[in-house]
Structures are given as structure tokens and as C-alpha cells.
Model the fold of this input.
Amino acid sequence: MNNEDRLHLLAEQTFLRRDLSETPEAARLTRMSIEARLRKVDAELAALPVDERAPARARLTFDGVPVIRSHGIFADFGMKAVSSFTEAVASVAASLSAPLAAMGPIPNRDQNQLLITSTAVGSFGFELEEYRAEQLALEEASPVATALERTQVLLQSTLGDDEALADIASETDPRALDKVRTFLKVLADNNAVCALQYGGRGVRFTDVGQVSRSLARLAADNLHESEEQLRGEFVGVLPNSRSFEFKLAGDQQIIRGKVSPRLQNVDDINDHLHQAVQIEVTRTQVGNGRPRYLLTQMPQWAQP
Done:
């Protein structure tokens, strides 16, 4: 039984309990029928194996012109804001396994969805939960969980310095970055702010000016990305931290960078240290800050 079957049983259990509470005591046969079905659903749920990992949950709340205190939120804005946020998370999740095409459907969109499970208490917003069709083992971090964390770090970094923004932006797919820009633009265009809480950490925009500045810092004329080919030799690679040092041919300058999470067997590079090679990287620079490099393809060395 997958998670979808469990959700169906939970929904039926909720319906039956409500139906039973609203059925008059005098309707004995009807109540007996509901109680029988409820016992069967309870038994099926009790027989399911214990879920080994809780789904990722986040809290996204809004404030500003489209929000009427804790009473409500204008539907047009609410739908656009949540849709653009979930699209950003799904894009980041999809980019963890393969580069995203510039256009077209986001891959694995159905597997990287978020559910709205409740409205947030205290200010107006929503409780979000990853949708899982199947259970995951405890040690597995789902793509949605990783994407929520990265999206939160990316939003937080737009409030920090160029170095912090360059670090996370250099590891984020360009199309996923554009989806985060879209989310911030929805907020700015509607004079709204948001707060995101996930994994015990939170990021909050306190005024619309802050949102606009974050949007400007993510803009293409401030965040420069380019695909480059570099010639030189690897000096060293740390597989666990997925970082490398590379000495450029010619001026002997040593650059440091990260290895894309999509690349496998990173430790193999250490078997070819100090051998001439050409590598493909994404170069990311925020403003006039120090550029970051992301190795995007496993190098091919000449055969001896």
C-alpha cells in the first residue's frame, strides 16, 4: 500500500467519524453500518507499517496589502503566490537529478508536489507538506525536502552579502533561479511580504522594499552566470564536501569550486590529479564579488 492509499483511508476515516457524529441516535441501522465501516478502516490503518520518515513540512505566511490581518487573503494573490512558490520548489527538486531545459514542462512535476494541509495560525498563510506517493527510508532526504531547504537558504541569502548569495546561486539551476525570481516578483507587484519556516529555521521579509531589493539582487544584470571551458589540472578534490581546486594553464592561478550534485563518482578525479584536462563549469558572480565555479560535467582525460 502506498502513501496515496493511506491518504484515501485517512480521508474516509475523517468522513465516517463526522457522518457518525451527525447521524441521530434513533437511526440505529444507519449508525451500525457507519460504525462497521469505520472499524474496518481503523483496522486497515492500524495494520499499515509505521511510516519511517515524516514528510517535509513548511509554513509560508504573508502580510501586506493583499492580506486582511489574520482574517483572509485576496484569492487572486494567494493563488499566484502559493503557485509560484511551489513551482520554485518543484524546479529546484527536479534540477537535483538533471539540468533543466530552458523551456517546457518541469520534469517529475507530479513527484515533487506540495500539499496545502492547513492555514497557518497567527498570521495568514498556509501549512505545506510534501506529497509522497511512496514511503522513504529514514536516511533518505527527499528531493522536495532538499529543495525546500535550498529555497529557504536562497531567499535568506538575498538578504545577506554578495558572498553568501554567490555560494547558493552558483549551485542552483538557472531556470530554478528564475522561478524564485518569479515568486519574489509576485510579492513585489502586490506590495506583499512573506515568511518561510522550514526545518527549524526561518526567513522573513519585513517590508516590500526589502522584497524589491532581493529581487534586484537576483536580477540577471547583478547575478552573472556563464558556461565556460577551462584548461589546466586538478590539484585536489574533497568528495564529501564536493569541492575542488583547479590550477589554470597559463597563469597558474588556482580556482576553487563545487561539484554539481548531479555528478557521480567524484572521488575518481583524485586518480587524475596534475593531469592536463579541459573542464566545463558554470561561472557565477554577484555584483563585483568573487566568482564561484560549479563543475557541471565529469572530465575526460586522454588515454595513456
Residues 67 and 73 are 4 Å apart (CA to CA). The mean pLDDT is 88. The two ends are 53 Å apart (CA to CA). The chain is about 35% helix and 25% strand.
